[in-house]
Amino acid sequence: MSLPVLLDFLAKASYFVAAFLFIIGLMQMGSPVTARRGIRWAGVGMVIAVVVTFFAPATWGGPGIDPLNLGLMAVAIAISGVFWLWGKRVPITDMPQMVAIFNGMGGGSAAAIGAVALLNAATFKGACTAEAMAAHACLDTTKLVLAVLGSLIGAVAFSGSVIAWAKLDGHLDRTFRFPGQQAVNLLVFVAALGLGGFLLYQLDVPVIIAFFLLALVFGVLMTLPIGGADMPVVISLYNAFTGLAVAFKGYVLGNEALIIAGTVVGAAGLLLTQLMARAMNRPIRNVLFSHFGGGGAGAQEIAGSQKPIEAADAAAMMAYAERVVIVPGYGMAVAQAQHKIWELSRLLIERGVKVKFAIHPVAGRMPGHMNVLLAEAGVPYDLIADMDDINPEFPNTDVSLVIGANDVVNPVAKTDPSSPIYGMPILDVASSKNIIVIKRGKGTGFAGIENALFYADNTRMLYGDGAEVANRLVAELKALDGGH
């Protein structure tokens, strides 16, 4: 076996090992208990893939290592190191927007690979010379189709994720809608598809540029009208897009690691998107081509009034309860109250109170957002229950403490067909014996409607910043125990 053949075999074997580690890592990320280990295994796989790719030109039997390519890869690795340092300093509350922008970079990378492949193919005019092979410009019909599709999907995922990041980070604090918006979006998408189809027959540089511009514009237009409540679904969907685009580019480049990793990420992203949409009882097309809420026009009026409670009374109510369920939402993340809430929970547990945390699938701004916050605070995994498991327990719960959650506990989702959230599965907090809601003010949730739970006879409102209120509750509990 010649040295180039041996090196090529070792490179492909290394890519296979990397892909295997990606799959193992993704499987372990399915449980909070093994998620950290999964991240490490996937990280090892990525290191292997990067190192092999860095030296891959020498193993392909081509002209050797291209200094320009090595320089570009070195710059990319250096930039990724900067982002790694930035990621370590990002507050846990900013994790959704960081995930969105990093996911966008994956889609952008896939689109950039597609752009290079198409431009190289246009440069060589289909002539499959040795130089064209070295530049991966020999695109047969299948590779050309996948290059175009992968570029379209990757570009949409990139620009759409940038808009999602801007919305989550507060740079775009409203949705943008105008008459005929969906028709305009459809025209832009059809135009991009048309140019992509034209590239299958004739590769012209101006057409390639126009194709990418339209794909990027479509990603922006598609994401602008989508509201904050739908962002978990959108982030998951764009993650699936990125994985699919990466898999297509892996086939174009003949890179097994990209094919396997992209396919796994794409499939996982699609499954998660379906689960998130099902948790909101909304089809994905409704998320993309409609909007959540809209002021609740036509919704039934809510009778009663919000009844306040003082921290001392709320603490006493929980201290002498048998079962307490804590329901966190995005408001807890904004207030950075997760550590104080866990301190409060520990004090209750020490008094013999049975405490659990109830998590709605779309609570927060990204899939698993509340789980990440609670894990950061040190909450044991066995105290965290998902919606389906905890709902039957609410009727036997003495006190439910809601902090920062709104639409996901609104009972009109079950009782008012005219409500914009009607049919959305919710946490059945309303069936608890007593409910305490920590809330900064009297504002509405993402859906723009009043929460009937806040007006219920068994609900009391504890107004104030989440962290400050939790701190007062902790102090009151300690006072009940004589300051210990």
What features would you describe in this structure?
- Helix 1 (3-28) runs antiparallel to helix 2 and helix 6 packs antiparallel against helix 9.
- Mean pLDDT is 82; it is low at 58-64 and 292-298.
- This protein has 484 residues and is an alpha/beta fold.
- The protein has a six-stranded parallel β-sheet with strand order 3-2-1-4-5-6.
- Helix 17 (412-415) links the parallel strand 4 (399-403) and strand 5 (434-439).
- It has helices at residues 3-28, 35-55, 67-89, 95-124, 130-134, 141-168, 181-199, 205-223, 231-253, 256-279, 284-289, 311-319, 330-335, 338-350, 369-377, 387-390, 412-415, 466-480, and strands at 323-328, 354-359, 384-386, 399-403, 434-439, 459-463.
- It has two domains: 3-289, no CATH class; 311-480, 3-Layer(aba) Sandwich (Rossmann fold).
- The chain is built from 18 helices and six strands.
- The chain is elongated, with a radius of gyration of 26 Å.
